[in-house]
Every structure is written in structure tokens, then in C-alpha cells.
Design brief:
The protein is mainly alpha-helical and about 120 residues long. The chain has helices spanning about 1-25, 30-124.
Length: about 120
């Protein structure tokens, strides 16, 4: 620093020194304040870690609930499909039975008509 004293003089050096000290005080943090900030940051970090754990737990719980809900919906859909399939099966059986009766009746009428036509030709 002797070079600065030579160049600036005693008064200039003292003014520069006071200016630098003021700037350092203006922009610096005291040790106690720095320690308080660090302790608060530790608290924030701890709280953030707790929040992460809670979020993970909530996600796990939500996934479990969605899985249960999906299973319930799938079971209901399966029951609905079975019920609808049973109804269609019964309708198919009824339609098949009615169709057989209709075809049987037509065959019977055809046979009767054929017999009547044959009788009519023999009578002539």
C-alpha cells in the first residue's frame, strides 16, 4: 500500500480507504447475520425435504386409489358385459326357436299342399 500512499497522498489514500470500507459495509453481511441466514436456510432445507416426502406419499396414495378405482370400474364393466351377453344369448335362442317353428310350419303347409295337389291329380 505504500505505492498508493505515494501516488494519492496521505489524504487521498485515507479517502479511498474510507470509501472502500463504506462500500464493503454497505454490501457485506455480518457474521451473526450470516449465521442466522444459514440457520434459516437449514430450516427451509429441512422443511423442503419433509415436503418432498409428503408429496411422494401423496403420489403413492393417489396411485393406489386410482388403481383401486380402475379395478372397480373394470369389474363393473365385466359384469355389464356378462349381463349383456346373457341377454343377447337368450334373444338368439328365442329367435332361433321362432325361426325353427316358422320353418317347420312352412314345411308342414308345403307338405299339406303337395299332398292335396297329388290327391287332386289322382281324382281327375
Amino acid at each position: 500500500m505504500p505505492v498508493l500512499k505515494e501516488k494519492l497522498g496521505e489524504k487521498g489514500y485515507e479517502e479511498l480507504e474510507s470509501f472502500i470500507v463504506e462500500k464493503i459495509k454497505l454490501h457485506s453481511v455480518e457474521r451473526d447475520e450470516f449465521r442466522e441466514v444459514l440457520s434459516r436456510l437449514d430450516i427451509v432445507e429441512h422443511d423442503l425435504a419433509d415436503l418432498k416426502v409428503e408429496v411422494r406419499e401423496l403420489r403413492r396414495e393417489m396411485n393406489e386409489r386410482f388403481d383401486r378405482m380402475n379395478e372397480s370400474i373394470n369389474e363393473r364393466l365385466d359384469r355389464m358385459n356378462e349381463s349383456i351377453n346373457e341377454r343377447f344369448d337368450r334373444m338368439y335362442e328365442r329367435m332361433t326357436s321362432l325361426m325353427k317353428w316358422t320353418i317347420g310350419t312352412l314345411v308342414l303347409f308345403g307338405t299339406i299342399i303337395s299332398i292335396l295337389i297329388a290327391i287332386g291329380q289322382f281324382i281327375k
